[in-house]
Design goal:
- The chain is α+β, with helices and mostly antiparallel strands.
- The chain folds into two domains: 29 residues, no CATH class; 96 residues, Immunoglobulin-like.
- 16% of the residues lie in helices and 37% in strands.
- It has three helices and seven strands; from the N terminus they run ααβββββββα.
- The chain has a four-stranded antiparallel β-sheet with strand order 1-2-7-6, with no helix packed on it. Strands 3-4-5 form a three-stranded antiparallel β-sheet, with no helix packed on it.
- It is flat, with a radius of gyration of 23 Å.
- It starts with 10 loop residues before the first helix and ends in a 10-residue tail after the last helix.
Length: 160
């Protein structure tokens, strides 16, 4: 028994076998399982066979920073695009593993593509955005505009 046997991937097959009076009950149970297991990273590929990288978005006074984990990928496999209000990271992961021995031959291939679109705040200096890729991590620096940095004022919190 594998972990895939525990996750309800075949939604349509199980629902069609259920008698009509219990159909809505089983649909609700399957939806509950779908929501529960959607938070777990069981494998780097999602149900459709697409790779879904983890992305962190942080902010400080001077910039926004986006980090995407892209293990096993090269910078030539990654594309970063920006339009008026969003940033899109696209890529294709290709893995081809081959082993030859005296009495065996082993080959495994995995392919998956992804697209992640991130809405951008208005206060970004679009001409100074930087993208760096190192050790399987894509890091994007999105500097804030100078007007934004100057308008920040810290307000002291006092006890009553």
């Amino acid at each position: 028994m594998s972990i895939k046997d525990l996750v309800p991937f075949r939604k349509k097959e199980t629902v069609t076998r259920v008698h009509e009076p219990f159909r809505s009950f089983f649909e609700e149970i399957e939806e509950l399982f779908d929501r529960f297991f959607s938070d777990f990273e069981i494998a780097p590929l999602n149900r459709e066979g697409l790779f879904t990288p983890r992305i962190d978005f942080t902010e400080n006074d001077k910039e926004y920073r986006i980090s995407a984990e892209l293990p096993g990928m090269d910078e030539k496999d990654i594309e970063v695009l920006m339009d008026e209000d969003s940033l899109t990271i696209r890529g294709e992961k290709k893995e081809d593993k081959e082993e030859k021995g005296k009495d065996y031959y082993y080959r495994e291939r995995r392919f998956g593509s992804f697209t992640r679109t991130i809405p951008l705040p208005e206060n970004i200096d679009r001409d100074k955005i930087e993208a760096k890729f190192k050790n399987g991590v894509l890091t994007l620096r999105l500097p804030k505009t100078a007007a934004t940095a100057r308008n920040v004022k810290k307000i002291e919190v006092k006890t009553a």
